[in-house]
Design a protein that fits this description.
Chain B is α/β, with parallel strands linked by helices. Chain B is 28% helix and 21% strand. Chain B is built from 10 helices and 10 strands. Classes of the chains: A mainly alpha, B alpha/beta, C mainly alpha.
Chain lengths: 426, 323, 243
């Protein structure tokens, strides 16, 4: 190569270099842009939910002195007493407000406090009947609208048709606050109570336990069957048209819309097998079927990723096929299997459509105890609360979403941690 | 006239470990300084180590061990073995006798079928779908491809070492203990410990890993890993050890160590080694078989193959005149 | 130097050099015995020397075979290669030495039938002893790897030549003095020539040993006697005995 051609070549290389670096720079820019957009949307969504829901985590409590009028309390049957009316009338009296003949004002005053009040009062009397005739201090949660007022969601400026509180009630609430009877505290009820029609008493515990029970059933069904099927298909079965067909179908099943699984659940589990509707058993079965293809696919690809040298080494030592798979291949594939399993469980946790179809949209108070009782689940709880008419459910829906997201984050984090811990180099 | 002046060079004495078994010390001059003659050099004298004759200047000859042994009885006998991968035939009627306590090397260009034939000896080809083996391979009087022979048991008798060292991702101890454990060769932990120690010693690895038996086997260097794999293979006391290019991934020093190990191992085991390196086949083996395009071209003593092969193709391959 | 990692390789090399040392020992014995058979007019000894030469030939073939095997199978390089090649060269030199000793012994058989000539055979004996010593020294240098020993032998090649020249003159004088001794003296002359050739072989061995140890060829002319022995006779004016 002469000097001239050498220089020309060098010149061409040099010229092309600038364009190449420019292209690379642009590509990097696009990548960064894409990540920023994605993160931006994520922050937007999360931000909206958090700003909407954080208020649900604290609630207001009103403390009142209550005179246990022996004339109105039946010693033998304290819960029959209309404590709410009692308290309302006493409070009216304390404020020096005269009630009309129909007692509308008393009703209005009563509406400021939660119905929990009467249960607390009755419980006090039941424990200590000696309190009859004395003045006791009872604290009860503020009613949902009162709570919202104190949180600033509703004010006197809000148009009258958008609030249930009358101006008079608002005035009373202000007086209560001025008297120092109102206290803010962490809304533990959100986490310790089951669902309720009263927003101030509504909690996610029932749904959480229901979801947990359902996940248990899902895991018990999907993991053994999924991993077992994947191990068999990958390691033991022959490679022929039938197994190819099976593989294609499994891949397709992973893409089937979840509501179809719900229909399947209704048709097979509820109508044909007569399993109890809306129970964690049925929910778990349906979600298990839904998680199965994902687990099979994840397990298969983890098994495929184990290098054949390990299998050969084990076989050459005289290990049988089964020993090779269970003592060598599967332990090495474990990180991938675990990740796939946990992620598919997290996915199943958030599925709503099949649950709706099998009937988990109904209102279920209380905490579930058994697999065959009707329960709620977190996603369907979110759905129910979102559709509820009380305004206070607004913030609670967002809070329930946050609880659900927290669950998912914990499960995904667990997947990553477990994978890191068990990843082995080979 | 056979004069017993020196011993025959190809006699294989027992007990190669330790001192000169052939008593290589012989005095070199019959005339000592004072004119007396020493007739002893002309007689057959069973020398013991350390016995010198008169003056130090006479004892020039250092003690040495005999380096080669005779080729032993046939361990594996293959007749008309053909291997098919689906419709494609990879081996054509290969017939070969592999002697015991000897290193037999398979050489040949890439794709000539030597690895394929090696894998038929422990039925590893069974694990490849669509692979068919015809012909008869006899070991211990039995055809190993017979239905009555369980490949799992066969592989306990015929161990294999692969090209890339592949220790299990377990501890060193667990690697070596795996074979005896799954075949139920030991009943107590003490026995297992003894087997692990003996195998690692025989593989020349004990001194280097005795203090870290419970660390990962994959943390060793390439040469050490290969020796670990060999220790793992000999832990089940096989009769045959197959090696598929065991040194091709190793540097020259590690290779030399493995070759020395093979030299020591051949006193106990029948070893078959496939190698790309003709120099290695020349160094390490006593018998060599040259494969070409799925057939055996020539088999013979390594010395003959590398000094004066019978077949033209062998000569061309060895001298690099191929293609 | 460390041992070879593959012990069998080191063993094979050592065996080869051991074989050469053994062959050297036998060659020494042959030379010594041949000279002695001349000195003592020992016919049986001379015959034994002639018969033993076959062994030397056998050893030569064995060493060559071993060396070829080593080169083919081990592919030696550097010092190992020099060792192997030196072994082959030495075997050749020693085989020639043995042949020369055999010739001396054959001639000894012939000389033994004639009148004894003490002074001459004594000279032969002295020369023979010198040559034997040189052979022994150079073989010692070979087995011990000592360069100095080899160099000493190489440098003293002229001593043998001087002995030869002296013997040549002596024999000529004898032959010219008494023509009846021509037969025996001619034999003795050839013996002296053979011994001088053996001395040369010893020098060759020294050069080979030097190459094996250093890897360099020996530079420089071999030291020779004052003049070339073959020229001496032409310039020589004999002292004739009184007729």
């Amino acid at each position: 190569m002469t000097d001239a051609t050498h220089d020309a070549r060098a010149g061409r290389l040099q010229a092309g270099l600038k364009a190449r670096y420019a292209r690379e720079g642009r590509f990097k820019l696009y990548g960064v842009l894409a990540v920023c957009i994605a993160v931006g949307f994520l922050l937007l969504l999360l931000g909206r939910i958090v700003t909407q829901g954080y208020t649900a985590f604290y609630a207001h409590e009103i403390t009142l002195p209550v005179y246990m009028d022996p004339a109105r309390i039946d010693r033998a049957y304290p819960q029959g007493t209309n404590f709410e009316l009692l308290v309302a009338e006493q409070q009216l009296a304390r404020y020096g407000i005269k009630d009309d003949a129909r007692g509308t004002r008393a009703t209005a005053m009563r509406g400021l406090f939660s119905s929990e009040l009467k249960f607390r009062a009755a419980a006090l009397i039941r424990e200590n009947p000696a309190l009859i005739g004395q003045t006791v201090t009872i604290a009860a949660p503020a009613a949902d609208e009162s709570d919202l007022f104190y949180k600033g969601e509703i004010s006197i400026e809000t148009p009258a048709d958008q609030r249930r509180l009358s101006d008079e009630q608002i005035g009373w609430l202000n007086r209560l606050k001025a008297d120092g009877a109102v206290r803010t505290h962490f809304n533990g009820a959100l986490f310790t109570n089951g669902d309720s029609t009263e927003p101030e008493l509504a909690g996610v515990l029932g749904a959480v336990i229901g979801s947990a029970l359902m996940l248990l059933v899902t895991a018990c069904i999907a993991i053994p069957i999924g991993v077992g099927a994947a191990v068999y298909l990958e390691e033991f079965s022959a490679r022929n048209r039938l197994t190819d067909l099976i593989e294609v179908n499994i891949n397709n099943l992973a893409a089937v819309p979840s509501i179809v699984y719900g229909l399947l659940g209704v048709a097979v589990f509820i109508n044909w097998a007569h399993l109890p509707r809306s129970s964690p058993l049925v929910g778990g079965l349906v979600l298990g079927l839904m998680a199965l293809p994902t687990i099979i696919i994840a397990t298969r690809s983890s098994l495929k990723a184990v290098p054949p040298s390990i299998r050969e080494a084990a076989l050459a030592m005289g290990a049988s096929r089964t020993q090779t798979v269970f003592q060598h291949v599967l332990p090495l594939a474990m990180p991938g299997v675990m990740t796939g399993t946990i992620i598919s469980m997290a996915h199943a946790l958030g599925e709503t459509a099949p649950l709706l179809l099998i009937g988990m949209v109904s209102f279920v108070p209380g905490i579930p105890h058994a697999l065959n009782e009707p329960t709620g689940a977190l996603p369907s709880l979110v759905y129910i609360w979102e559709n509820a008419s009380e305004r206070a459910f607004h913030e609670r829906t967002a809070a329930a979403i946050m609880v659900l997201l927290a669950f998912m984050i914990v499960m995904n984090a667990a997947a990553i941690v477990l994978r890191r811990r068990f990843e082995r180099r080979w | 006239m056979k004069v017993p002046f020196f011993r025959a060079p190809f006699k294989a004495p027992d007990g190669r470990e330790g001192g000169p078994a052939d008593g290589g010390e012989t005095p070199v001059s019959a005339v000592v300084a004072d004119g007396k003659r020493d007739e002893t050099i002309f007689t057959h004298e069973p020398e013991t180590a350390g016995s010198q004759v008169t003056e130090p200047s006479m004892s020039r000859v250092p003690p040495v061990k005999a380096s080669t042994g005779p080729v032993g009885v046939t361990k594996i006998s293959a007749r008309d073995v053909s291997v098919f991968y689906g419709a494609k035939q990879a081996l054509f009627d290969v017939s070969l006798d592999i002697p015991d306590k000897t290193v037999t090397a398979f050489i040949g260009p890439s794709g000539c079928g030597k690895s394929t034939f090696l894998r038929t000896l422990n039925r590893m080809n069974d694990t490849i779908p669509g692979c068919k083996v015809t012909g008869r391979i006899e070991m211990g009087g039995q055809d190993i491809n017979a239905k009555s022979v369980d490949p799992v048991l066969l592989r306990a008798q015929v161990g294999m070492v692969f090209q890339k060292p592949n220790p299990f991702p377990k501890t060193i101890y667990e690697n070596v203990a795996y074979g005896p454990r799954i075949h139920g060769l030991t009943s107590t932990k003490a026995e297992l410990d003894a087997i692990v120690e003996a195998s690692l010693k025989r593989a020349g690895l004990w001194d280097e890993v005795a203090d870290r038996l419970h660390t990962a086997g994959t943390g060793l260097s390439g040469g050490q890993q290969q020796r670990l794999v060999i220790a793992r293979a000999i832990a089940v006391e096989p009769e045959v050890i197959l090696m598929d290019e065991p040194c091709s991934a190793l540097d020259p020093i590690a290779t030399a160590k493995i070759e020395e190990l093979i030299d020591e191992l051949r006193e106990r085991y029948c070893i078959v080694i496939v190698t790309h390196s003709m120099a290695q086949a020349a160094r390490v083996s006593q018998r060599t078989a040259f494969f070409h395009m799925g057939r055996i071209v020539e088999t013979g003593d390594t010395e003959e193959i590398f000094t004066n092969p019978r077949e033209r193709r062998t000569l061309d391959y060895i001298t690099g005149r191929f293609g | 130097m460390n041992q070879h990692t593959v012990k069998a390789y080191g063993d094979e090399l050592n065996q080869l050099t051991a074989e050469v040392a053994r062959m050297g020992g036998l060659a020494e014995v042959q030379v010594a015995d041949a000279v002695e058979s001349v000195a003592r007019r020992d016919i049986a000894l001379a015959r034994a020397v002639v018969e033993r030469d076959v062994k030397l030939d056998g050893m030569h073939r064995e060493i060559e075979k071993k060396a070829i095997r080593l080169i083919a199978l081990r592919g030696p390089v550097a010092s190992d290669l020099r060792k192997t090649l030196s072994a082959m060269k030495l075997a050749t030199e020693l085989e020639r030495t043995g042949d020369l000793a055999k010739n001396i012994a054959k001639r000894a058989l012939a000389v033994a039938e004639t009148e004894p000539m003490q002074p001459l055979t004594r000279s032969i004996e002295r020369m023979g002893r010198l040559v034997s010593l040189r052979l022994r020294d150079v073989l010692d240098a070979y087995t011990s790897g000592e360069l100095d020993g080899a160099l000493a032998v190489w440098a003293s090649d002229d001593e043998v030549d001087e002995h030869y020249n002296a013997l040549f003159r002596e024999l000529l004088t004898y032959m010219m003095g008494d023509p009846r001794t021509i037969n025996a003296c001619t034999h003795l002359l050839f013996m002296a020539k053979n011994l001088e050739r053996i001395g040369d072989h010893a020098t060759n061995i020294a050069e080979t040993v030097h190459y094996e140890i250093t890897g360099d060829e020996m530079i420089g002319e071999r030291p020779r006697g004052a003049t070339d022995a073959s020229e001496t006779g032409l310039n020589f004016s004999p002292i004739l005995p009184e007729a």
